[in-house]
Amino acid sequence: MAGADADLLPRVANPMESIASERKAPSFPIRDLTYWLDGGKRVTEMKERIMLELERDPLWRVSDHPNLTLAETRERAMSKVRRLADLAVSRPLDETMMRLSIVSVVDPGFWTRFGVHFGLFFGALQGQATPSQLAYWLEKGALSMQGITGCFGMTELGHGSNVAGLETMATLDEKTDEFIIHSPTLTATKWWIGGAAHTATHCAVYAQLFVKGKCYGTKTFVVQLRDTKTFQLMPGVNIGDLGKKMGRDQIDNGWIQFTHVRIPRSNMLMKHTKVTRAGDVIAPPLAQLAYGALIQGRVSMVSDSANVAKRALTIATRYASVRRQFGSGKAGEPETKLLDYPIHQHRLLPLMAQTFAMIFAAREMTANYQQLMSVLGELGEDDEGPAVKDAIKNLKETHATSAGLKAFCTWMCLNIIDQCRQSLGGHGYSAYTGLSQAYSDFAVHCTWEGDNTILTLQCGRYLVATALDARNGQPLPDNLSYLRGVVSSGGSAAGKACKGDSIEQVSALDTLKAAWSSVAANAIRSAVRDFEAGLAKGLSKDNAYEFSSASRLHAARMHTYTYLLHRFAAQVDQSPPKLRPVLTLLAQLFGAHSAVQHSGEFLQSGFYSGAHVETLKAFVNTACGEVRKDAVPLTDAFGYTDYVVNSPLGRYDGNVYEKYFDLVTSLNPAKPVPYFDSLIKPLLERANESDPGPELEIDQE
Questions:
Q1: Nearest to 547 by CA among 535, 534, 536
Q2: Residue 696 has pLDDT above 70, yes or no
């Protein structure tokens, strides 16, 4: 009878066979796309070697992370520091950067802990120390972490990344040739300082420079926090632990208070501003270029957004190719794959297109930043003329572009993680399937290195200022060339409309580029109009910018989408011919789906009509169906091993249920309930003092 009953159930398909069928006929060579995304065969092979090294190293076990306590998490992270520090100084720079890129996906909390020293503390030395100062700190072990572990003391309890508003003071004592570092108020307490609670011996402290009673703004000072032999706090230094956080518990964030702490004058980093023994303050013309080094964090977070999104989509897409739910209802027939449902395709595949857009934007943003820093490094302290003006112009453009991309790419990635998590159904809520912790770990990207809304406003301010400069005859940068013709006081985006009605014409990549350019130009023009309206009301320039803040934010949003699409299209043009069809489709899907989401803006700009928007919706439906055929091969091309994916639901072989069950049971073995005698048993055996009432006789009803 049991066998007959079983025949009435839907047939259970083999998940490994299900995912294997997805790889039978990809429309593109998967390995070639991996090489293209990574930057070449040599880079891919280096990445694969590093992933294997991490997987085979017992220190890098990650499958049990969900079960670790706060103390165990921090200790596990610290156990890896020496290994990675030794590799960082002994291996080529490109290999070190690739290793850190992979680590940022495998163990983002450790990446932060390690990056605080190498990226922030040592980065401050590289960017702001004189050659002789840098040589001094290198000899002290600042690069190799031999004698020094550093942290980065910018943010304060009452002040985030508003550097100009910091309260910590650095006052020159001319008699002793020392600076006195002091926290004058509670809100001046350095807060969220990674590495401060347990690890750091030194800190790159951002403080207001005071010389002879005059404040010269925020500068950077190296302050010793702990004795390097005894690890006791230095006199006048107080440190505490910030404890449990939403995510990234591997990093020991702490608070620091300074009470009249004395440091040598030479501990002020003086690559730009100098303070002499006589108390003279020398600020060179290139002082503003010191902020170029601060952009690095934003640039790295665009890349990190792309990398983390790749992992999330790998998990969700592979699971959707093996998970079956509902179906025709015919006996003996398997249920339908999630990935075969159009609504699931709409749920995941536009996110796939977004991820490719971020990958290519990160590639270009990184190259632009490296070129900018190379130029800045070649400029002398007293250089003047066109070279300096060009450098400042490029710095402003890179600052604004990186601000917008950091904000919208981190917002995109956080949404991708959560949408992928939800697409896993109930299993997405498990800590063992990989995305709940990913969300908690990644959320900080939206607020550190600048709150996303504030960064977006900075980008919007640059857009308004650039449009006004163009009106006065200044040349437009390449990524704002779409503003030509609309920057005059009476200019508009009118007249630029879609010249066709067919689905091919409306959704063509060049058409989408023109459409987004029109929308961005219209949004910037509106922000300029609001800014000028503020000035007309008698507001100051700064207050007029505040008056136009909502339209500035919107302009930055539209500009960033436009930038992403244009960079995507540029990469499509440069891609190998065999990859161009699938990349073109993904670029079209990104542009069209984003346009549908913001359809009101396209109607307002006049580029698309209501009928055009309906045509775009039809194209999105078609494109999702086409991308669905390559969904699993596209995630394979991301090139992450099962170790990096670190989710039983995202396994390459599709054996999701067996591996999920094995992981959960191995990490949670059966054992006596520790609070049975103290809580459960007394609950069950407590006396019932109330009237039990009549007995329930269900058979008599």
A1: 534
A2: no
Report the largest interatomic distance among the alpha carbons of the chain, rounded to a whole angstrom: 103
Number of neighbours of residue 453 by Cβ within 10 angstroms: 15
Query: Nearest-CA neighbor of 398 among 316, 495, 292, 493?
Result: 292
DSSP string of 100-113, one letter each residue = HHHHHHH-HHHHHH
- Alpha helices by DSSP H, listed for 472-548, are 503-507, 509-536, 541-547
For residue 328, what pLDDT band results from cuts at 50, 70 and 90?
A: low
What pLDDT is attached to residue 3? 56
Q: Record the tokens describing residue 500, joined without a space.
A: 């066709």
Residue 333 has pLDDT above 90, yes or no: no
Nearest by Cα to 292 from 391, 224, 378: 391
CA distances, 59 to each of 87, 174, 332 (Å):
14, 50, 47
Kindly state the tokens that stand for 430: 């498990």
Alpha helices, H only, 57-130: 70-90, 93-106, 108-115, 122-128
Q: What number is the average pLDDT over the span 173-199?
A: 96
Pairing of strands 237-241, 190-193: unpaired
Active site residue 689: no
pLDDT > 90 fraction of the chain, expressed in percent and rounded: 73
Rounded CA gap, 383 and 410, in Å? Answer: 37
Instruction: Answer for the pair 279, 291: CB distance below 8 angstroms, yes or no.
Output: no
d(CA 641, CA 655): 14
End-to-end CA distance of the chain: 32
What's the whole-number mean pLDDT along residues 528-550?
96
Verdict on whether the full-model pTM lies above 0.85: yes
What are residue 210's DSSP bridge partners? 171, 215
User: Taking Cα atoms as reference points, which of 456, 517, 531 lies closest to residue 489?
Assistant: 531
CA 32 vs. chain centroid, Å, equals 26
Which residues make Cβ contacts (< 8 Å) with residue 357, sequence separation at least 6? 564, 565, 567, 568, 587, 590
DSSP E strand boundaries for 145-225: 150-153, 169-173, 178-182, 190-193, 202-211, 214-224
Please report, as a single letter, which amino acid is at residue 628: R
For residues 170, 173, 176, 182, the Cα torsion angle rounded to the nearest 10 degrees is -40
CA gap 612, 589 in Å, rounded: 15
Please give the average per-residue pLDDT across 145-170, as a whole number: 91
394, 452, 459, 533 from 528: Cα distances, Å: 22, 21, 13, 8
Q: What does the DSSP assignment read for 324-377?
A: B------TTPBPPBGGGSHHHHHHHHHHHHHHHHHHHHHHHHHHHHHHHHHHHH
> Read out DSSP for 574-591?
HS-TTTHHHHHHHHHHHH
Question: Which one of 364, 449, 546, 689 is the catalytic residue?
Answer: 449
What letter does residue 191 receive in the DSSP assignment?
E
Residue 256 has pLDDT above 50, yes or no: yes
* Rounded (10°) CA dihedral 387, 388, 394, 395: 150
Contact criterion met (CB below 8 Å) for 295 and 399: yes
Strands 254-258 and 237-241: antiparallel
